[in-house]
Amino acid sequence: MRDLLIMAIILGGSAVALRKPWIGIILWTWVSLMNPHQQWGYASASMPIAMIVGVSTLTGFLFTREKQNPFFSPATWMLAAFVLWISITLPFSLYFENSLPLWNRSIKIYLMLFITLALLDSVKKMDIYIWTLVASIGFYGVKGGAFTLATGGNHRVWGPGGFIGGNNEIALAVIMVIPLMRYLQLQMTKKWHRHMMSVSMILSAVMALGTHSRGALLALAAMTLLIWLRGRQKIIFGAMVIGIALLALPFMPEHWWSRMATIQTYEEDRSAMGRINAWWMAWNLAKDRIIGGGFEIYNQTVFGMYAPDPYAVHAAHSIYFQILGEHGFIGLALFLTLGMITWQTSRQLMAIGKENPTLSWTRDLGAMAQASMVGYAVGGAFLSLAYFDLPYNIMIIVMLAKYFATQQLSKYKSPNIGEHRTIREHAKSLT
Fold first, then answer.
1. pLDDT in tens, 98-145
2. Which of 198, 368, 412, 426 has its CA 20 to 30 A from that of 111?
3. What are the C-alpha distances in Å from 376 to residues 173, 325, 345, 383, 394?
4. From its phi and psi, is residue 317 left (phi > 0), alpha (psi between -120 and 50) or beta?
5. Residues 57, 79 within the same domain
6. Domain, as residue range, for 31
7. How many angstroms separate the CA atoms of 186 and 192, rounded?
8. pTM confidence score
9. Which residues, in sequence order, are CB contacts of 225 under 8 Å at separation 6+?
């Protein structure tokens, strides 16, 4: 029954996307992040679902008039430069045939990001997009949090597959979505809606603890701190966080505490030392090859040439060293610059919302986007998730919000002095 329902939603949505391709973007995002066809489908699990949705959306995109130029932001150009660079490095990969499928997967993700920027041409569509991100990942946060409470934290929570199949990966994804939950909560007017979102955020935080991920603990702490610093109602939110910590942390079993304690004694942890060995490999490889080694470099041969310990073959387990080893220092510079532009645009959103009360939602969104980015920056330091959709989805939200806010502000341009007035000043002039 669930298989039929999922198939109906996907096939029906794909048909609608031919006329309204922005619906296809929502469907693509849901399928990419949540993987419903892999979780609950049987017949659909073996079908090329992503291709069906993608082709329908691209076809609709070609014929629709409801689209905008996606290159309205410096971040879009930087993303294009990054995509161009990883395409330039591809032919020079140490293992071209193995790298090609991974490049192909990444290019599809980036292509749909540009299409998303073109098709989400209103605040309403952007809000639906945000809800899709929250529902797709938040489902696993609420479910995993309930599981952690029911089992006393004695069993690890694992992800559904794909990019977020592991315990570390699903934890980071959920941590990145918690600030978006908070943003939606701040826009809610009904008390019971806000209470339901509070429960969702609490369960998601518990779920992150239930993955037994050390990186997730650090990312959760960094993300929570920034929500407190950037958000409203600091006293209430701070008291709630302290209360949750006092209730949840003692609830965790002894072996959870033992694992978290290894953060301070990483030299004695084989997994941690393996990651450091992989980081040195990436550093040495990037120094030797300006274009990096390509997508597929984690094998005995490459480690034998560049790693301090040639026998400790390990995945990068760091978004920074992953990009560095695979695409060199130029690739890392483009990747980091993209993040910095997104961060700066988030600050601009916060300033717009502070200056213009009727655009206060931009202040909330900019602040919570930064909290998500901090979670990704900290947690991503220990995971190979450089090509994961979610951080780029957040980048898109920030760029779109700035674009829409700027459009709204431009409506209040003074014809006499040729300067933009704030909405507050315009309102005063009418009274």
1. 999 999 999 999 999 999 999 999 999 999 999 999 999 999 999 999
2. 368
3. 8, 19, 17, 10, 11
4. left
5. no
6. 1-66
7. 13
8. 0.89
9. none
